[in-house]
Amino acid sequence: MxxxxxxxxxxxRLGTLTDKIPKxxxxxxxxxxxxxxxxxxxxxxxxxxxxxLGYKGHIIKDFFLxxxxxxxxxxxxxxxxxxxxMTYEFEDWxxxxxxxxxxxxxxxxLKKFNIxxxxxxx
Length: 122
Known about the structure:
Blueprint: E1 2-7, E2 27-28, E3 31-32, H1 33-43, E4 48-53, H2 57-65, H3 67-71, E5 74-76, E6 83-85, E7 94-99, H4 106-117
Parallel strand pairs: 1-4, 4-7
Antiparallel strand pairs: 2-3, 5-6
């Protein structure tokens, strides 16, 4: 089973918090909202995600492309440049990031998934 997460809205109700980052990337407890949502789904066994991107979607893409760096603690010696990563057990998630357009509304995003994945949305 896959979970579709709509992460393309402007997040206007959050005011200036979403001027630089999209709403799913606002941090709660040091981790982005989208991570918390995905963790809840994963706790029920859903580990395949399709994320519909729109507004500032490149920031969400960058987060997952650099996931190990973003989610790990490490220490660095600035003189030598040596980086020691702390051990961290990463999530066993499969994530498909899809740019569904900046101005696409909810129904349009779902329609794109219906076409891309030939899934039945009821």
